[in-house]
Amino acid sequence: MMAETNGPLQNSNPLFIRGDVGLGKTHLMHAAGWYIKKINPNRKVVYLSAEKFMYQFITSLRNKDIFNFKEYFRSADVFMVDDVQFIGGKESTQEEFFHTFNELINSNKQLVFSADRPPCELKTIEERIRSRLNCGLVVGINATTFELRLGILQSKVNDMNMCFSNDILEYLAANINSNVRELEGALNRIIAYSKYNNAEITIDMARSILSDMISSSNR
Fold first, then answer.
1. Would you call 46 helix, strand, or coil by DSSP?
2. For 15-140, which CATH class?
3. Would you call 77 helix, strand, or coil by DSSP?
4. Mind listing the pLDDT tens digit of every residue in the chain (219 residues)?
5. Domain 146-214's class?
């Protein structure tokens, strides 16, 4: 594990996580960053979205503070950028990202990126960046199974100290299969409806208030 070593994972630098919207890339990156800090508190872990990287870069240029910007990111032990596809078409941001990437990789630091498609399909990102993103380990997050969706729902319900019958959770897991965000949204909708209407949570209620989500998910 990269959390348990002082350097990057062998043959896995950069680590590139590919997955469709809502499959948990951001949660996975947050969990990895948290775990690294827990195991090795002295390591500097920098996590941010690609949009935030771009915003901070533009702000540093506007404020004539580019030196501190470079120093902050290039001193990271672990550099994690989520949804890297969003730097596509942003020439100056890509230029800075490219040099930050090179500086960190040459300093033997761990890099972790995520996107909604593999590096070779990031057509609006420069070829030199795509080739670097593709030179480590590319892993995919696949669509969830019924068992995993049911486990996620059970965990959420337990965390909220709420009582749901198994038939309701199984109904959600079987019918909301597009992504985890929609699954959690369906659960939250049921809970909100129950609270605001002081209504018992039943399978008939779930079917009624989720009819639009389920018809959309099953198209």
1. strand
2. alpha beta
3. coil
4. 444 445 555 568 999 999 877 667 888 888 889 999 999 999 999 999 999 999 999 999 999 999 999 999 999 999 999 999 999 999 999 999 999 999 999 999 999 999 989 999 999 999 999 999 999 999 887 777 788 888 888 888 888 888 888 899 999 989 887 778 888 889 999 999 988 998 888 899 889 998 887 765 555
5. mainly alpha
CB 45 within 8 A of CB 78: yes
Structure tokens at 71: 């120093």
For residues 209 and 189, the answer to whether their CB atoms sit within 8 Å is: yes
pTM of the model: 0.70
d(CA 16, CA 123) in angstroms, rounded, equals: 16
Domain extents for the chain? Answer: 15-140, 146-214
Q: Checking DSSP bridges between strand 110-115 and strand 78-82, what pairing results, if any?
A: parallel
Alpha-carbon distance of 203 to 157, in angstroms, equals 16
Quote the tokens at residue 142. 């696949």
